[in-house]
Design a protein that fits this description.
Blueprint lengths: L1 E7 L8 H6 L7 E5 L2 E10 L3 E10 L1 H8 L25 H10 L1 H4 L7 H4 L3 E11 L3 H9 L5 E8 L9 E14 L1 H16 L9 H9 L10 H8 L4 H20 L33 H16 L3 E5 L5 H7 L6 E6 L2 H11 L6 H5 L1 E5 L14 E5 L10 H12 L3 E7 L26 H15 L1 E8 L10 E8 L40 H5 L1
Length: 534
C-alpha cells in the first residue's frame, strides 16, 4: 500500500520544507508500528527544487483477520471469503487513511513550529496513489476531489493486460495536483475520501466516527456537493450515524450562512434539530446581527409576558434554549420542557444545570419525555404552551393529532406557534431553489398557508388567533419566521381541564394541580417523579 506526496520549490523556499511540514526528516527512513502492520516514511527525492515523501504501509494480513474475527471487517466485502488472500495489503483503503492520520497527525492539524508560515500557505502539491479501489469508477473519483480544488487523473486499472476484453477492474491509478491547498487540507481530504471510495472500513464504526468525520471535514465537507454520499460511506452506511452527521453538517452550513456560531443556531426537536437560518444587518450598522434564533426566542418571551402566563409548556424543547431563557424571568413560576428525544432532554439538563440551582429555582423547572401527537394528562392546566419550530418536523397527516393533543385536550389559555416562512427562502443565497431550510422539514408554509391552518385550528377549538412577524419583515416576501398567537375564548371552561385560580378550586376531573389550595392531583402528573428525574 503506497502513497507519495510531492512538491516543488525555489532556493528561497526549498521543496525540502516538506520535511518540516510532515515532521519527518528527508535524510532518514523511519518506521512506525500500526495495529495492522508497519508504516514506513522515506524520501525517494529531496532537494531544493523537488521533494517527494512516500508512505509505505505493510499490512499484516493475519493480524487483520484475527482482529476482524473473519466477519468482513478486513475492509472489502469479499474479505470474509478470502480472509488471507485479498487486496487489503495493496489497495489504498481505510488502513492507509488511519496510517496517514497516525504518522502525519501534526501535519493534518496544520502544526509546524519550525515553519509556521509555510504550514498556512498553499503549496504546489502532487499526490499519487498507484492502487485505489473506487466503487463508482473514475467518475466518482473526480466528483469527490475536483470540487475541492484538485486536478484529477484517475486511470482505470485493467483486470488483466493480456486480456483487455475482460475490461477494467474497480481500481484506479490516482493522481491529484493542486497549487491552491495547504498540506493539512490535502491530508484531511485523503483521510476522509480514501475509505469513502473503497466504501468499506477495516474496523467497527462507532458513534465517535461522526466527530472524526466533522473534524477532518471542517471547512470543506458542509459545502461539498457529494456530502451526503461522503457521510454515508464514511460511516459504513449506518443510518443513525449518517443522519446525525447530516444534521450537524446542516448546522454548520446554516451557521456559516447566518454568520454566527453553531451554538447560536436554534433547534426544534433535540438532536432532530431545526436550525434557525439567517439574519440580516439591522439599522445599516456593521455590528454583528442578532441571530434569528435569538430574535425568535425574544419574540416568544415577549408574547408570553403580554399574555400574563405564569406556568408555561415548551413543547418540543430540544436542547432547552427557550426553557433557559424563561428561567431567568421570575414571573414564570413553572416551566416544563417536553421532548420525544431523551438525548435532547439530557442536553437540556446539562444546559440548565438544575443541580447548581437553589431549591426554589430548581422546583420551577421540569423536563420530561413525551410525544406531541398523543394526549397527555401532564400537559393540562397550564397558562401557555409554545411550539417553536416544531410543526414543520411532522408529516402533514400527523398534524391533526398534534392539533387535538394541544388545542383540544391540553387547552392552555395561550398557544404560541412559530414556523419558517417559505417565501423568505429566496433571500438565502446559499439555499438552493426548492430546498427546505433543514433536511428534516416535512413542509414549509407560505404566510397564506400558515394563516389558513391557524385560522381553522382556532375556529375548531375555540381560540382567537393573531399573527406576528419574527425577524426582518421584507416588504415583498415577509419575515423569515412567522408566529401565531392563539388565545382561548372560553377562559372559564372547566370541562376542558382549566385551573380556576380565582377560587383556588381543584378540578380533579381534568387532573390539574391547584397550587393555591395545596392539593396534589396525582392524575395530572405535573409533579410526576419521571418529570423530576428528567
Amino acid at each position: 500500500m503506497f502513497l507519495t506526496i510531492s512538491t516543488t520549490g525555489t532556493p528561497e523556499r526549498p521543496a525540502t520544507d516538506l520535511g518540516f511540514l510532515l515532521h519527518k526528516h528527508p535524510d532518514n527512513a523511519q518506521a512506525f508500528s500500526t495495529s495492522y502492520g508497519r508504516a514506513h516514511v522515506l524520501y525517494p527525492e529531496a532537494d531544493a527544487e523537488r521533494c517527494t515523501a512516500a508512505l509505505l504501509l505493510e499490512v499484516d494480513a493475519v493480524a487483520l483477520v484475527r482482529r476482524g474475527r473473519g466477519k468482513g471487517r478486513g475492509g472489502a466485502p469479499d474479505a470474509a471469503l478470502a480472509q488471507y488472500v485479498n487486496d487489503r495489503p495493496y489497495a489504498a483503503s481505510s488502513l492507509l487513511a488511519v496510517a496517514v492520520s497516525s504518522v502525519f497527525s501534526s501535519a493534518m492539524r496544520g502544526v509546524c513550529k519550525a515553519r509556521p508560515e509555510r504550514a498556512a500557505q498553499p503549496l504546489p502539491l502532487r499526490i499519487e496513489v498507484p492502487a485505489l479501489p473506487a466503487r463508482g469508477g473514475p467518475g466518482l473519483v473526480r466528483r469527490l476531489f475536483e470540487p475541492l480544488g484538485w486536478s484529477v487523473t484517475a486511470e482505470p486499472v485493467p483486470l488483466d493486460t493480456e486480456f483487455p476484453q475482460w475490461g477494467d477492474s474497480r481500481y484506479v491509478r490516482l493522481g491529484l495536483t493542486s497549487s491552491a491547498l495547504t498540506l493539512a487540507q490535502a491530508l484531511r481530504h485523503l483521510y476522509v475520501l480514501l475509505p469513502v471510495l473503497d466504501d468499506a472500513k477495516h474496523y467497527w464504526v462507532s458513534p465517535d466516527e461522526v466527530d472524526k468525520l466533522l473534524r477532518a471535514g471542517e471547512g470543506w465537507l458542509p459545502g461539498h456537493p457529494e456530502h451526503k454520499l461522503i457521510a454515508s460511506r464514511y460511516l459504513s452506511r449506518r443510518w443513525s450515524l449518517t443522519r446525525q452527521a447530516m444534521e450537524r453538517l446542516e448546522l454548520v452550513r446554516l451557521a456559516e450562512t447566518d454568520d454566527s456560531e453553531v451554538e447560536e443556531i436554534d433547534n426544534a426537536v433535540g438532536e432532530e434539530s431545526e436550525t434557525g437560518t439567517g439574519t440580516e444587518e439591522e439599522n445599516g450598522t456593521e455590528e454583528r446581527p442578532t441571530p434569528l434564533a435569538v430574535q425568535r426566542r425574544d419574540a416568544i418571551v415577549a408574547a408570553l409576558r403580554r399574555s400574563g402566563a405564569a406556568r408555561v409548556l415548551d413543547l418540543g424543547c430540544g436542547q432547552g434554549q427557550l426553557v433557559q431563557e424563561l428561567v431567568r424571568d421570575v414571573r414564570f413560576t413553572e416551566i416544563v420542557g417536553v421532548d420525544v428525544s431523551m438525548r435532547a432532554l439530557t442536553l437540556a439538563a446539562r444546559r440548565l444545570k438544575p443541580d447548581r440551582m437553589g431549591e426554589r429555582q430548581a422546583a420551577r423547572v421540569h423536563l420530561f419525555q413525551g410525544s406531541l401527537v398523543y394526549t397527555d394528562k401532564r400537559l393540562k392546566g397550564y397558562d401557555a404552551a409554545v411550539l417553536s419550530e416544531v410543526i414543520e418536523h411532522l408529516d402533514l397527516p400527523r398534524l391533526p393529532a398534534l392539533e387535538y393533543a394541544v388545542f383540544g385536550f391540553a387547552r392552555p389559555r395561550t398557544v404560541l406557534v412559530t414556523t419558517p416562512n417559505v417565501e423568505y427562502n429566496v433571500r438565502w443565497e446559499s439555499l438552493p431553489a426548492g430546498h427546505t431550510r433543514h433536511g428534516d422539514h416535512r413542509f414549509e408554509w407560505t404566510r397564506e398557508e400558515f394563516r389558513a391552518w391557524a385560522g381553522a385550528v382556532a375556529e375548531r377549538h375555540g381560540y382567537e388567533v393573531a399573527f406576528t412577524p419574527v425577524g426582518p419583515d421584507d416588504p415583498e416576501v415577509g419575515p423569515p419566521t412567522q408566529m401565531a398567537v392563539f388565545t382561548r375564548t372560553d377562559t372559564n371552561d372547566r370541562t376542558n381541564g382549566t385551573n380556576d385560580r380565582t377560587n383556588g378550586t381543584n378540578d380533579r376531573t381534568s387532573g390539574t394541580d391547584d397550587r393555591t389550595s395545596g392539593t396534589d392531583d396525582k392524575t395530572n402528573g405535573t409533579n410526576d417523579k419521571e418529570a423530576k428525574a428528567a
